[in-house]
Every structure is written in C-alpha cells, then in structure tokens.
C-alpha cells in the first residue's frame, strides 16, 4: 500500500492510514509481530492531513537524443560525448521523488509477509522512476579511461560474461534491513536508463539489453501490469579522449590510469581524521597528535599516495616543524620502556644543548590500554608508567624539549597515557584531567580503561613520592642496560642493539638514510608507521539488527521474527548492553537459534559502566560531590563527540547526565525522537518527537526547526542526541553542517563521521536519501548520484567491520 506523504508529524511515507487497514494486516497473527514503531505509536487518526502531491518531475532522455540507433543493435541508442555530458548535468540536477522509492529501495518487493507488516504495506509496486547509470565496459582495466561514478558490468549483472545474463538478485530474504547500502547499485540499475562506453561496449550493451528485456517480462508477469516504464540502453560513440579533452569534470581516471576525481570515502575519511586530530600542545612542550605528525612518517596526506607504501619524499617527510625530539607511540600490545631504554635516551639527549635537536629523533612506545587482573599486575604496570612520566617531565620541563605522544588516529589510543600525564604533571584528579584535555582537543576513552585510570589517579596521589627505579644509582641502570643488550631479543631472536627500532623496545633513531634502507636486518629498520593502518580499526560499527531493536525499542522476541537462519556458519559479535548476538557471516542476518539479547529494563538505559571491581580504589567523598557526572551510571567513559566548537553529537546516556552537560557548558539540547527528561528550567530543550529510526519516518521537515534552535543559542554549546547517537541525531547533524557550512553531502558526512571518533555514524538508507535531497535543494544539484553514494558508504563501513 502506498499512501502519499504528509509533511507534518502525523504521517509518513507508506503509512497505514486507518485502523481497519492496520487490523487487517495483523489479523490472525500474534500481537508481538514486529511492526515499525512509526506505524504503531503515532496517532493515525489525524483529521486533516495535508496530502503531498506525488513528484511530477521525472527525469527522461530527450527524444532528440534517441534518433540514432546502433547499426547492429536496434535497441541500443547512440549518443555523443557532448550529449552524455548534457544528460549527466540534467540528471544530477533533477529533483529526487519523495514518495515512490521507499520501501522498495530497502529491498522490499512485497513477497514477504513480515516485511510488508513492518513497513505497513500489502504490496509494493515497482517505482515509476527513471534513473541513469553509466557502465564502464572494460573490466580488465577498471582504473584506466574511466568516467566518474561509472560501475562495472559485474556490479549489475549476475554473470557479466554470459550471453543471457540477469540483473543481480537483490532479494535478501524476509529480513528487514534499514541500511541496505550494498544492494543499491544493482537495485537502482533495474529502474534506470543505462549508458555504456569503453572498448567492450558492444558486448556489454548486448548483455544488458537482454537482462532488461528478461526483467521487464518477469515484472509484467508477476505484477500483471504492462504499463511499467521501459528502460533504455545507450552507448557513447566518441572515444574517451574526447571526454578527457572537452569534459574533464566527467573523468574519474584518465587514459594513463591517473586518478583525477577521487571519490573514495575511505581515503577522504583518513585525511579528515588526520586534519581533525593534528598535533597540538596540551602542556608546555608536550604535544598530542596522530602518527602522521611524526617527523619522517612514511605516510602522506596526499590522497593519491595513501596506498603507495613505496612513496617517499625526503624533503617533505624529514621536516620537523614542531621541533620534536621525542615521539611516543601508544598502541595495543606495545611494551612500556625499560629503565635502560629511558637511561640511554636521557644520556643521548642530555649530551646536547637544550636548544639543539638530536640528529636522530628518539622513538618510544607505550600501552594504550591495560586491564589489571590483580593488585600486583597493576603495580608492575604503574612502576613502568611512572618512570615514563618522570622521563617526559624531565625532558619537557627541565630541558625544554618538545615531545609528541601519538597514535594512528590521534584521539583514542593516546588517551590513557595523556590523561595519566595530565594528572601527574598538574596534580589534578581524573575528572579534572578529562575537562582539561577536552578544552584542548577531542579524545575518546574506552570504557574498559576507566578502572585503570582510577587506579593510576589513586597511585599518583598516594604513591608518587615513593622511591622508584629512576632514583637508583647510575651504575645499576648501566648494569641493567648492559645485561639487556647481551640477551637475545625476545620477539625475533636477534641480538638487540642500542639503535634498534621501536618494535624491539629500545631507542629508535630515524635518519634520512634509514628511510631508504631495504635491509630488513639493518639496525635501524623503518619504524612502525610504515605498516600501521592509517586509522584505528577498533571503532564501533553497530549491527543493523541491533540498531533496529534498540532505536525502535522492539522486543527481542518480535524483532527476531524478522530473521531466518540462512547459514550454519555464525559468529558472535560483542555489542553494547552486554549482548551476544549470533549473526551470519554477512553481518546482516540474525538467527533465531542460539540467540540471547539483553535489553535493559529501563527504556532510557543504553549502557552503564561497572564500578564494582574489587581493585577499585576508595573514592574521595569530595570527588563524588565535585564530579557527580563522572561517577554517574550514565557516564560511559567518554564525552559526546564535538562536531563544531559549540555543537556536540551523542546518545541518550549523554543527554541524561545533566551534570556532565553542565561541566561541558552545554545549555541547549536537541532530542531526536527520545525524551531526555532534563529540567527545562536548567536547559533549553527542543524535542523532535515521534521520529523513529525505522526506515519510514522522514527528517525532511525538521531541518529549519533545528537550525533556528541552534542559531538562537547564539554560540552556546548544544547537544544533538537520539538513542544510540549514530542514525537519527547523526542525520540531523549532517543536515545542519550542510546548511551552515555550505558543505556537500559527502563533505558533511565525512566531517561528522570523523568527529564522532570511535563510534561510526550509520544513518539509515532513507535518511541518507533525504540528505541527498537536501543537497539538491541547497545547491541545485547532487555532488554524487545515489548508487555511488551507497557504494562508498558500504565500502567504508565494511572496512571498519572486524
């Protein structure tokens, strides 16, 4: 059933418009069958609903461009490069329809009852929509002579080499998927005119025409409707050189294979993260940044060079603009520096005048996380940590040397060491260190590190004056060092050397010659930056099923009835709320068997940290009074994400911790579909009520309301939140960034995604579609077509999926 959308909050697309229809859909079924909350919880009986007219503007190819046919393929129309450029411009500026593509784009064809029930429809018609897609007919050379946003034949045909292919089957079974980005290229191709070009254009065009004919016959047979649109096949007759010469904006890769217009979200996100987390000074002479800030880093910010490990520009990469003498990298499985290592580094640096840089930068490493299993294990860790902090203090405060603490992303793995340094140096409590660091840069703390940070805080304030190894005699230190040098390296069996790199735990010296040495056994091997991932791979990517259950507050039993077990091969994925969900290998289907989901008893609770460890030190009662936000069950270990200096993005736990909001000087709160329960006398509140993350509800009519509210704050800090903080609130935030900063959808999406830190934003499919509509409204054209947008989102998400 397809009911026109109303712009107000009383109705949504494909909304069941009366109780009788709703009862008919669920007749004879158990009452706990899953149904989209926007169909169940919103008032259906709105007496005067404004009926939005169906979109009348439909993209079409002018008849003047359909006069020339291929000499041997009657169903293939020939066009010139100029005509394609005109078609592309027209298509990218044609308004997208509001009402006809959903829920069809979700993968719903009307053949599964549970899908129909969830979306409130009894049948799904093929959208009367005409898109346009360009196919690169040269699979052997996918990165040569390629038009921007083109797809390869195998992305839309199930067997691109067969003489009788079909379009890729986009059916995903009875499951309800709200983030079906993976299937959008193949699905959109079935409602698009297709343009083909390239050296194999004749053969590919023939196969696509056959697939179009077969699909049309199938649809007519199934739907009993011969009035469906007939989609066309076109071929560019000009060589690619004409496009290169006259229409450079259409060139993705030129004829030499050089990338001209890079649309890779992964590469652009890496650049965005690095720009966002670049090094800055947090205390005198101590800096925090990402690994690209390390002088001599083998990585370049140049998009075209991200994946080229052989690239090296000695002039650029050996620059040291911040005059770093020491670089300390925090990462998992690192080894804390031994006393002999710190002694050698100190002697090396102290032989130089304070104002003089060492010829070779000192590289050290530190753990980014630690889980104490006993008091003894923590004491051993703390002894190593305090030696490192004393070394940093000596070199920064006494000798005035600049020190960089870094990790791959610049905000997560450094947090343990940086917060420890702030507490040690400034003698302030852990909550104060949080606020001190937050004023200077964004950071993220894993919840599992809260306990060890509290233990570090307690030890700094109660044990820091006790004798440490650094107070032993110089002779003992030299003996330790000499003994270590005479022992085989524990990692690879090689003899240690005073200048062996960071991965062998001694002082690492980076020189110009080192960077070009290819001998693996050389004492100064390339540092760990050469093989580190460009961004951390530990960010949280939520499963679509999890988001559907939590955001829409479905009961586990009803939600699971959407899913069948299509595979015996399952894996266990750890999610927040201490859930153990068995899912199939494609990370989309959830099995009803062997599944346990713990939904909190309180609707508002998402996750709470556990402060009941027997290792937890006694908490000063005054801290509970001064920093109630830190000890609240709502505090997850990190603040909401700072997107702009005065704009934060977070989840319901952030919004229901009023003391934390006050500590961050947040005075305005936008609640997207969730009630924060905040006192309106203490905060300015905007509730976007009845807005669900169910693939049905629309955010299109909310932009102006949010923009006006934030603008009226006049620079005061504002939090936008929903339940999980990745879909509804993220989509609203992206829209705000587009409107206020004049960014395209891709720019705003990556801008927000990078600044959400360890939590990956995941607006549902319909929200992303409406953001593309907003881009058209703001700028008069799309910067990226729908299929390419979805492909890039899918690729960037699977790159983060462990």
TrEMBL record:
Q: What is this protein called?
A: Uncharacterized protein
Top-rank lineage group of the source organism = Eukaryota
Among the record's GO biological process terms, what is one? Answer: nuclear DNA replication
Keywords on this record? Answer: Hydrolase, Protein phosphatase
Annotated region described as Disordered, given as residue ranges: 471-528
Amino acid composition bias (Basic and acidic residues), ranges on this chain: 503-523
Does the record carry Hydrolase as a key word?
Answer: yes
Residue span, Tyrosine-protein phosphatase domain: 639-780
One Pfam family from the UniProt entry?
A: DSPc
Q: Which InterPro entries match?
A: Dual-sp_phosphatase_cat-dom, Dual_spec_PTase, Prot-tyrosine_phosphatase-like, Tyr_Pase_AS, Tyr_Pase_dom, TYR_PHOSPHATASE_DUAL_dom
- Highest classification ranks of the organism: Eukaryota, Fungi, Fungi incertae sedis, Mucoromycota, Mucoromycotina
* Species this chain originates from: Lichtheimia ramosa
Q: Name one GO molecular function term.
A: protein tyrosine/serine/threonine phosphatase activity
Q: What's a single GO CC term here?
A: nucleus
Q: Which residues belong to any copy of the Tyrosine specific protein phosphatases domain?
A: 383-452, 704-767
């Amino acid at each position: 059933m397809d009911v026109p959308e109303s712009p107000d909050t009383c109705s949504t697309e494909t909304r069941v418009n009366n109780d009788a229809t709703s009862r008919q859909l669920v007749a004879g079924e158990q009452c706990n069958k899953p149904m989209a909350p926007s169909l169940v919880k919103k008032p259906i009986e709105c007496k005067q609903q404004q009926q939005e007219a169906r979109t009348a503007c439909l993209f079409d190819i002018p008849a003047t461009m359909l006069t020339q046919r291929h000499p041997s393929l009657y169903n293939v129309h020939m066009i010139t490069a100029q005509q394609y450029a005109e078609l592309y411009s027209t298509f990218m500026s044609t308004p997208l329809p509001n009402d006809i593509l959903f829920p069809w784009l979700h993968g719903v064809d009307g053949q599964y009852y549970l899908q129909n029930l969830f979306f409130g429809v009894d049948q799904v018609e093929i959208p009367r929509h005409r898109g346009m897609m360009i196919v690169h007919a040269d699979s052997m050379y996918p990165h040569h002579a390629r038009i921007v946003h083109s797809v390869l034949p195998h992305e839309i045909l199930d067997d691109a080499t067969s003489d009788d292919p079909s379009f890729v089957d986009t059916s995903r079974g009875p499951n309800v998927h709200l983030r079906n980005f993976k299937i959008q290229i193949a699905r959109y191709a079935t409602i698009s005119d297709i343009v083909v070009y390239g050296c194999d254009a004749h053969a590919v065009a023939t196969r696509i025409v056959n697939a179009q004919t077969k699909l049309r016959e199938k649809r007519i047979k199934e739907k009993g409707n011969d009035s469906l649109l007939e989609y066309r096949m076109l071929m560019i007759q000009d060589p690619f050189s004409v496009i290169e010469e006259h229409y450079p904006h259409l060139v993705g890769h030129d004829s030499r294979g050089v990338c001209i217009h890079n649309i890779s979200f992964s590469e652009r996100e890496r650049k965005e993260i690095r720009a966002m987390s670049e090094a800055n000074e947090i205390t005198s002479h101590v800096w925090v940044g990402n690994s690209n800030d390390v002088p001599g880093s083998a990585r370049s910010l140049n998009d075209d060079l991200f994946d080229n490990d052989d690239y090296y520009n000695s002039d650029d990469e050996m620059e040291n603009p911040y005059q770093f003498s020491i670089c300390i990298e925090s990462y998992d499985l690192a080894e804390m520096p031994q006393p002999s290592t710190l002694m050698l580094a100190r002697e090396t640096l102290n032989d130089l005048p304070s104002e003089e840089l060492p010829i070779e930068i000192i590289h050290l490493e530190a753990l980014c996380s630690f889980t104490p299993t006993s008091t003894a294990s923590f004491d051993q860790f703390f002894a190593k940590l305090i030696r490192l902090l004393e070394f940093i203090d000596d070199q920064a405060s006494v000798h005035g040397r600049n020190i960089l603490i870094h990790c791959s992303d610049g905000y997560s793995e450094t947090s343990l060491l940086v917060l420890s340094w702030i507490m040690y140096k400034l003698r302030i409590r852990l909550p104060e260190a949080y606020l001190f660091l937050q004023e200077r840069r964004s950071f993220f703390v894993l919840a599992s590190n809260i306990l060890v940070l509290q233990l570090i805080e307690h030890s700094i304030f109660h044990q820091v004056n006790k004798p440490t190894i650094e107070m032993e005699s110089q002779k003992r230190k030299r003996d330790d060092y000499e003994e270590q040098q005479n022992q085989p390296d524990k990692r690879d069996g090689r003899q240690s050397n005073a200048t062996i790199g960071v991965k062998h735990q001694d002082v690492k010296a980076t020189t110009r010659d080192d960077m070009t040495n290819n001998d693996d056994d050389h004492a100064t091997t390339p540092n760990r930056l050469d093989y580190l991932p460009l961004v951390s791979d530990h960010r949280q990517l939520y499963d679509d099923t999890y988001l559907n259950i939590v955001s829409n507050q479905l009961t586990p039993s009803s939600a699971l009835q959407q899913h069948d077990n299509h595979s015996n091969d399952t894996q266990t994925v750890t999610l927040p709320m201490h859930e153990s969900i068995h899912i199939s290998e494609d990370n989309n289907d959830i099995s009803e068997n062997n599944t346990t989901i713990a939904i909190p008893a309180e609707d508002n609770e998402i996750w709470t940290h556990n402060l009941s460890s027997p290792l937890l030190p006694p908490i000063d009662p005054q801290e509970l009074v001064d920093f109630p936000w830190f000890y609240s069950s709502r505090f997850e270990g990190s603040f909401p994400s700072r997107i702009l200096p005065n704009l934060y993005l977070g989840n319901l736990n952030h919004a229901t911790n009023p003391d934390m909001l006050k500590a961050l000087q947040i005075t305005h709160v936008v609640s997207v579909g969730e009630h924060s329960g905040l006192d309106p006398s203490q905060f300015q509140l905007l509730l976007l009520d009845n807005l669900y993350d169910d693939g049905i509800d629309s955010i299109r009519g909310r932009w102006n309301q949010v923009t006006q509210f934030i603008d009226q704050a006049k620079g005061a800090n504002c939090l936008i939140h929903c339940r999980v903080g990745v879909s509804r609130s993220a989509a609203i935030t992206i829209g705000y960034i587009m409107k206020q900063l004049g960014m395209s959808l891709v720019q705003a999406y990556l801008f927000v995604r990078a600044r959400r830190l360890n939590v990956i934003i995941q607006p549902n499919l319909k929200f992303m579609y409406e953001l593309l509509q907003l881009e058209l409204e703001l700028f008069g054209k799309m910067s990226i077509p729908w299929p390419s947008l979805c492909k890039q989102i899918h690729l960037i998400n699977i790159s983060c999926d462990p």
